[in-house]
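explain this:

___
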Amino acid sequence: MAYKRRGMLRFLRVRRFALIDQLELHFKDGFNLLSGETGAGKSIIVDALGLLAGSKASAEMVRTGESRAIVEAVFETDLKAELDRLGLDAGDAETEVIIRREISSDERNRVYINNQPSTVSSLRELAPSLLDIHGQHEQQTLLDNSRQLALIDAYADSTRLAGQVRDLYVDIEAADAEISDLTAEHARKIERSDLLTFQRDEIQKANPKPSEAEDLRRKLEVLSNAEKLLGAAAHGYEALYEAETSVLSTIAQVQRVLREAARHDSRLERVLEQIETSRLPLQDVAYALRDYAGSVDADPQQLEQAQTRLAELERLHRKYGPDLLEHLQKVRRELDSIGLTETKKDELQTRIAALRDEYSKAAASLSHRRRAASKDLESAVETELKSLAMPQARFIIAWQDVTPGRASGIDRPELLISANPGEEARPLERIASGGELSRVMLALRSVLAVDRSQKALVFDEIDAGIGGKAAETVGQKLKELSTRYQVLCVTHLAQIAAFAAHQYRIEKIVLDGRSVTRVAALHGEERIEELVRMMSGSRITHAAREHVKELLKATKA
């Protein structure tokens, strides 16, 4: 079955780092192998990759005499969603991610992701999707509990069920948060209920009418000036109509004179019509002033009542704003919502109870499947370890109950290993031997090949304590693993190196009085010569060369 690898380390550049002045490596798909004499700098390259995975940096890493070391790499991958989550511009992240780490001698270190300043914390979050480094001093993603569970779920074919458990947990947390907010809101409303009730009763008792205060102000203006208004109206009525010499009386006299004169000249009839047109409005004005005078009430008691009512309304306006009726409606709505909050809380509690019940059933089912599959997984890994020169190794998955449950379920695995008879099984992270740890990881990876994560696997010290047939088995497994992942391996053993699709020789030379690490991609005869050196040391014989050729043929079979 063909697997599509989504994550690959394409390019690595290391500058002024430890023994390395400047080194560039173009890695390829499949099985990439680094070889070289002891002390040439192979592990330094792994350390450089560790920096890209977020490992701790120190000023001692900077090459002597230099002020800054730089490690940068280009990964072919699609991590747009992860970069977005970290608040980084994805750019061309659908095709590549560029990581750069700068280590200064004054310990002013910097991290750049896709040429954007970032943090080691963000790098550590992103790195597990790019690199999985297996060595004595590296932090392994397979040692992370959540990733162990993901791998076990993949092996147990329970990934979908694990997703359901996670979704139920998220729904429960969301509902719990909502009910917590509702409870806090309800408590605030209960604290305010007495105040709200007082406000409602106070405004309802006052029973304000729309625009009442403004109407009262106008009424008070009239009542306060009643005598003046009555006098003005009476004077106007008398001047226009009542007095013997009133305006209307004078107009009537003028009309009589002109009417007599019009008998002799008809042109005055037009003037008479104009006078009559002017007289009628004046007469209406006089009647209006008379009626107005009759409507003005100078009652002191009514004035006092209006003043008292306006004072009460103005007091309420100062407390509750210009629109008392609107505030009253707002208070009523808030009081009504107290009951609605209680109803919603009851509904949420019922929903949470149902979700918890569903979560418990799904998590129990998931736990059963995980623990049942873990027995088969233990046997499968132990079988792999036997072929990796660890014939007495015991691999154990110890389960711990988690109460209350988490998004990952109700159990937590701990991967334990006993490398030799009589040894107590210990957690993977406490394995002292880097070679043993790498082989355990190789066994796990071989068994758990269902993992489709986008990363490059880096194995260092995997050849520690093995040789011969066991080494060939390791090489074969790395080759098989490289059909699913990009594999990078550091080894001293030709039996492992022969299985690689691409080999690079790391060598240390002295240049201008200083040690410098160099790298070269090996092809054809160069690779044969390197494999012979790895197998025979300084004794490069025709027989050794023929043996290497046969070994290369066998690895391609």
Q: What stands out?
A: DSSP finds 16 helices and 15 strands in the chain. Residues 508 and 517 are 4 Å apart (CA to CA).
